[in-house]
Amino acid sequence: MHVKIRVFGLLKELLKKEIPCEASFYRAEPITVREALSEIGINGDDLLWVVVSINGELAKKDIFDDYLDKDQVDISVYPLFAGG
Amino acid sequence: MKQIKGYRGRILEVDLTSGKWKDLHLDESLYHKYLGGSGMGSYLLKELTGPGTDPLGPENVLIYMTGPFAGTKVPTSGRHQIISKSPLTGIYGEGDVGGTWGSTLKKAGYDGIVVKGMSETPVGIYIDEEKVEIFNAEELWGLDSFDTDEKLKEKYGKDTSVSCIGQSGEKKILSACIVHDGKNARVVGRCGLGAVMGSKNLKAVAVKGGNEVSIHDTGKFVEIQKRVVPMLVQGTKGMKAFGTAGGVSAANLVGDLPVKNWRRGDWEESALISGQKMAETILKRAYFCTSCPIGCGRDVAITEGPYAGVDGAGPEYETVGMLGASCMVSDLEAVTYAADLCNRWGIDTIEVGSAIAMTMELYEKGIVTDEDLGGRSLEWGDAEGMVEMVKQITKGEGFGKILGMGVKKASEAIGKGSEKYAIHVKGLALPAHDPRCYSGMAVGYATSSRGACHVAGGSYFFEKAVTLPEIGYPEVLDRFKTEGKGILNAKSQNIMSVMDSLKMCKFTFYGGMKLTHILEYLEAITGMVMTVEELLEVGERIYNLKRLYNIECGIGAKDDTLPERITAEPRHDVGTGEYLPDLDTMLEEYYRERGWDSDGRPEIKTLERLGL
Description:
The complex is a heterodimer of chains A (about 80) and B (about 600).
Chain A: E1 2-7, H1 11-15, E2 22-26, E3 31-32, H2 33-38, E4 50-54, E5 57-58, E6 67-68, E7 72-79
Chain B: E1 11-15, E2 20-24, H1 28-34, H2 37-48, E3 62-65, E4 80-85, E5 92-97, H3 101-108, E6 112-116, E7 123-127, E8 132-136, H4 145-156, E9 161-164, H5 167-170, E10 178-180, E11 186-188, H6 193-199, E12 202-207, H7 218-235, H8 237-242, H9 248-254, H10 259-262, H11 275-281, E13 283-287, E14 297-301, E15 311-313, H12 317-325, H13 332-345, H14 349-364, H15 383-395, H16 400-403, H17 407-414, E16 424-425, E17 428-429, H18 440-447, H19 460-464, H20 485-502, H21 515-526, H22 532-552, H23 564-568, H24 583-594, H25 604-610
Parallel strand pairs in B: 1-6, 7-12
Antiparallel strand pairs in B: 1-2, 3-4, 3-6, 4-5, 7-8, 9-10, 9-12, 10-11, 13-14, 14-15, 16-17
Helix pairs in contact in B: 1-2, 2-20, 2-22, 7-21, 12-13, 12-14, 13-15, 18-20, 18-24, 20-22, 20-24
């Protein structure tokens, strides 16, 4: 499985950590969204501050423990802001 | 005046006492000095009212103002400002709102409306490209805001935009708000401006228009749009997915939520009232204001259970923060139902949520009893009790009649030491961001022109994620640091004053908008060429003008303060530990940066520099 992750917006500023804007890697076995994001340093409580889209489809619920099981997966990661 | 592109160059003045109206043509220099929206509105309010003005008397005015971008496709420009002397606080009052109304007024041919006087019977105002009329609104009186919107759309057409009050405004309840766009409920929530509208016997202002707004440089505008709009769309997709309440769990993590009337900063049930929970359960779709690429609004429906029948705007972060977290009510459908009641009847969810949370604490302490509450209890987390209190407040009945006066006045009426539990600044309840989490909010709330306001300066943006290298903030600021927060708030209030005057949504900053983008839009739409420094000086002028208004109303340094709970009671939570904001140090720095004296009065040289 080829996974490509792209990070958008002010996520680095929000999480206050260095995150690559774009990363790609290969896994022989299916992995979860959580595991994929961990590859670029987004982990633990960071997940409270992000929204993801998988292959162009914006997640409408918590999907971090869902398995990625396609040959090619594009993950986009967006910041999530509290309040107005 | 010479016609500046982007503006219509005329403001409608309606006198409800005489039933007459006329066009006002303000000097061109005022558009340069105040831009529009909040800036122009504050100028007009200061010209037309003062310390002797009774907020609910005919001498008060209600001002609707758009900005130069309204009616164009500048992102998030479909907004307007409503300005008046507040009956809730007795000082400067205003509110910012999105939806369709502002851009529609502009397309009908006006930059704004000044409503004066008081009608003897219920009336409405209708404006389109051809005519203005004051119509009899007796048949609308008694209807909620959603039904009023529907009736006026039946009368004038589906493309009519309606600004109106519900029954709470008719009853002149001091927390009453002004609702736009019917069940989509875009609300000027704060300062009790719905009561001002009710005092004038003005039920609604309906507008319809399709005239395009002429802009200065179309080619330049298109070029900017190609760069900025995709950036905003990408940067704010999280808000589209889960709305402003999408960050509730994150807010809980860092200690931003006002749990249990601001006694706790975290709560194990917070995820149950989050935008994610909303998306899993009651969300139908995202709602977009006119010209908005963000789509943070929620369109929800509850189809079964005790709260069935809700079909419209879903609750925002502030609403779930106040009616949910502050009351410890984790039933999202109950919170949504209560918010829907507030929207229909037209009352501020922040003030109402704060008043109910205060009452829960007073009940816990035995200051308020079952007898006071009409024979019922009101424990923390009591969803049914919270909804019942909302009903009483909106209708001005039972104990709700007291709470509708807002937390400050309600606590004074209840007495017995209850003032200590009323969490407000200058009579306006704190919204759902805690200065013990983002320290800059301490001086922000203390010095906001309308009382405790999170968007007048929005300094927490810059303590969370937003950078503005153009004014010396290349990195996100330490949220617990004291030094620099006074300066930050003076600058951020100037910036937000500009946003409220151009009428752009502050969420564009979350999407990566910079001040240089705003200046590019200003030039492309109006032809005005400004530097960042000149733009911020406009914001500074506006902020000082509001301060002068408030000083005339008796406000000074003694009022630039915070509830003791915020400055003296640590919450011992994971996100903030023992932290308490050092307001005095921040205030000293703030006054110095503003050029105000130790009593919080602008110095003469400051006023001269700003042309005030």
